[in-house]
Specification:
single chain, 57% helix, 12% strand, globular, disordered C terminus, binds NADPH dihydro-nicotinamide-adenine-dinucleotide phosphate, binds the ligand CC[C@](O)(C(C)=O)C(=O)O, binds magnesium ion, isomerase, 6-PGluconate_DH-like_C_sf, branched-chain amino acid biosynthesis, KARI_C
Length: 343
């Protein structure tokens, strides 16, 4: 079995190193706050605006991307993938002097040749296998989100130790850290989010919802059946695998799972998954995404608008407004939850 690193296996340390977290979005806020809480020296590199103000409010040291990159030994790039190259060229590269570490949470730009790092720095990735907001939330609850690490360039001879110490610092070694390559991380992450976790899932949920509503069933009922309950079922799979989930459902549901599941996701679906993987491996997907951004996202924006107007979203917003506990884990909703709990 592959080596999985946990806290007790990691001896490397980031002591004496200054870590610049570039970007303060989903991953950025989590890495910065988790690293600070585990005793590390963190500066957030960001442009003036909402994220800058938020990082300051959260008690972090804040600087421009250029300044943070200049003072740091380890520079973690947590900007949106499609924006990294421009910011890297203008503000990070000039400060990336020999001996520093350039780090990513996804291999996209290095693997697809958008960022070509200089040869005298360590380059590695530490990629949490979960959304940034959950990287922070699970950390605060004493748990962690697993992560992958990969070394692309090891000039110091210490890149693996530094990567593992970083993964430990953000709490991922509480859950398990696996070694990979930039190629494997990039291709599997893109595949997972497109075919299963995000694209596959939202399409499955919408198709189920639409099937019920088009057959004349109540949209609110269809929302509970196809979206709300999904979390409860997935929680059981997260805790105990598919068999654990099947232990909790009725035998009737389990029989339906066995006989109807493969009718929904069949050999044709798998063949299309293979096509999706091929587009990722050949760079076709990356090229399309980069061009879409160069054109100011015409297709992305149109689809996003349509999706936001889907009936399942409208129904869901109304139903969730009556269930404040659903958002209890989200900090920005704490006040709302507390006040409604008093009522
Ligand atoms: N989202 C996730 O959970 C995961 C992401 N990753 C990877 O992590 C990386 C970061 O992704 P993610 O956290 O989603 O990114 P976000 O979209 O959440 O990042 C937004 C942040 O980037 C800042 N930003 C955007 N443009 C600029 C700019 N030109 N100059 C300075 N700051 C800028 C924003 O600042 P402002 O407020 O000023 O706009 C904001 O702080 C990516 O490589 C992604 O693939 C990996 C695993 C999971
Ligand atoms: C599943 C989407 C993801 O890959 C992630 C949260 O891990 C991302 O890019 O946001
Ligand atoms: Mg991912
Ligand atoms: Mg991803």
């Amino acid at each position: 079995m592959v080596k999985v690193y946990y806290n007790q296996d990691i001896n490397g340390s980031l002591e004496g190193k200054k870590i610049a977290i570039i970007g303060y979005g989903s991953q950025g806020h989590a890495h910065a706050q988790n690293l600070k809480d585990t005793g590390h020296d963190v500066v957030v590199g960001i442009r003036k605006g909402k994220s800058w103000d938020q990082a300051e409010q959260d008690g972090l040291e804040v600087a421009t991307v250029k300044e943070a990159s200049e003072v740091a030994d380890i520079i973690m790039v947590l900007l949106p993938d499609e924006r990294q190259t421009a910011v890297y060229e203008a503000e990070i590269k000039p400060a990336l002097t020999a001996g520093k570490s350039l780090v990513f949470a996804h291999g996209f730009n290095v693997h697809f040749n958008q960022i070509v790092p200089p040869s005298d720095v360590d380059v590695f990735l530490v990629a949490p296998k979960g959304p940034g907001h959950l990287v922070r939330r699970t950390f605060e609850s004493g748990a962690g989100v697993p992560a992958l690490f990969a070394v692309y360039q090891d000039v110091s001879g210490q890149a693996t130790d530094t990567a593992l110490a970083y993964a430990k610092g953000i709490g991922s070694a509480r859950a398990g850290v696996l070694e990979t390559t930039f190629k494997e991380e990039t291709e599997t992450d893109l595949f997972g989010e497109q075919a299963v976790l995000c694209g596959g899932l939202t399409s499955l949920v919408k198709a189920g919802f639409e099937t019920l509503v088009e057959a004349g069933y109540q949209p609110e009922l269809a929302y509970f059946e196809c979206l709300h309950e999904l979390k409860l079922i997935v929680d059981l799979m997260y805790e105990d695998g598919m068999s654990g989930m099947r232990y909790s459902i009725s035998d009737t549901a389990q029989w339906g799972d066995f006989v109807s599941g493969p009718r929904v996701v069949d050999a044709d679906t798998k063949a299309r998954m293979k096509d999706i993987l091929t587009d990722i491996q050949t760079g076709k997907f990356a090229k399309g995404w980069l061009l879409e951004n160069q054109l100011n996202r015409p297709e992305f924006s149109a689809i996003e608008r349509q999706e936001e107007e889907h009936q399942i979203e409208k129904v869901g917003r109304e139903l969730r407004s009556m269930m404040p506990f659903v958002k209890a884990g989200k900090k920005e909703n704490q006040k709302e939850v507390v006040s409604s709990a008093k009522n």
